[in-house]
Design a protein that fits this description.
The chain contains 7 helices and 7 strands. It has about 250 residues and is of the alpha/beta class. It binds NADPH dihydro-nicotinamide-adenine-dinucleotide phosphate (NDP).
């Protein structure tokens, strides 16, 4: 079991879904954990409350990743609150699906702001505070590498960009003992992609195991990367997708 006592983690988009499972898993392993959210204060406070109930420090921050300065400000708030930062998980994302003709500048800019600029600027701010053992982990997508059906170009473009960022930062931060990795979930049962949604059966059929992931199955891989056992993994893309990209 990964042990993270004495570490501080920041998870963006931790009020629901994969981000909430990651925040809870890191806290269960011992990390004091800060999570951000956009709108859902009640859900975010509930996750922070569960972290505190587990005996760790937990804090929910409202921080819209679309705003240019917000990710760096969240990093600074986390450091101010808990004194250090060891683990950054870039999880918050915009998920727009539709034909090419549907997207105007507003949708394109918002997708790139939340899914690409925010992870980059959060990593930039986090790297200033991290020492040896630091971890930057981003959540990509199974559709960063495959286009299983039309309508995903904008979202996929944003997730593929994280691969370039991950490799570049891994090279740059490796000498300081900081690892940088990208986890690509497959279809995972969340509000954004419910396992009982209208297309869920077809989507599950694109995996080799024939089912959606539980959020805890994605969180387990993030926790492994976050701990000492993950120390020699960097610049990697890890597919936790039930064989979707097999
Ligand atoms: P959910 O829609 O269930 O949750 C999204 C979370 O991100 C919420 O906590 C939400 O906060 C937060 N969030 C959204 N926009 C912003 C923003 N602008 N600023 C701050 N926080 C924000 O998403 P999932 O759990 O399904 O997805 C999590 C990650 O996993 C994403 O990166 C997604 O692309 C990726 N992914 C998901 C897959 C799936 O099948 N579910 C498959 C592959 C990848 P609030 O509650 O306030 O709205």
């Amino acid at each position: 079991m990964t042990r993270l006592e004495g570490k501080v983690a920041l998870v963006t988009g931790g009020s629901r879904g994969i981000g909430a499972a990651v925040a809870l898993r890191l806290a269960e392993a011992g990390a004091d954990t800060v999570l951000t959210y956009e709108n859902n204060a009640e859900r975010a406070d509930a996750v922070a409350g569960r972290i505190r109930a587990a005996g760790r420090r937990g804090l929910a921050l409202r921080s819209d990743s679309a705003r240019p300065g917000a990710p760096a400000a969240a990093v600074e708030e986390a450091v101010a609150a808990f004194g250090r930062l060891d683990i950054l998980v870039n999880n918050a994302a915009v998920f727009l699906v539709g034909p090419l003709a549907d997207w105007g500048a507003a949708e394109i800019d918002r997708t790139l702001a939340v899914n690409v600029r925010a992870p980059f600027t959060a990593a930039q701010a986090a790297a200033r505070h991290m020492g040896p053992g630091g971890r930057i982990i981003s959540i990509g997508s199974n559709v960063a590498d495959r286009a299983p059906f039309p309508g995903l170009a904008l979202y996929s473009m944003s997730k593929t960009a994280l691969a370039g960022m991950t490799r570049g930062l891994a090279r740059e931060l490796g000498p300081r003992g900081i690892t940088v990795n990208l986890v690509h979930p497959g279809p995972t049962d969340t509000d954004a992609n419910p396992a009982d949604g209208p297309n869920a059966q077809a989507i599950a059929g694109l995996t080799s195991v024939g089912r959606y992931a539980r959020t805890t199955e994605i969180a387990a891989t993030v926790a492994h990367l976050a701990g000492e056992d993950g120390a020699y993994i960097t610049g990697a893309e890890l597919h936790v997708d039930g064989g979707f990209t097999a």
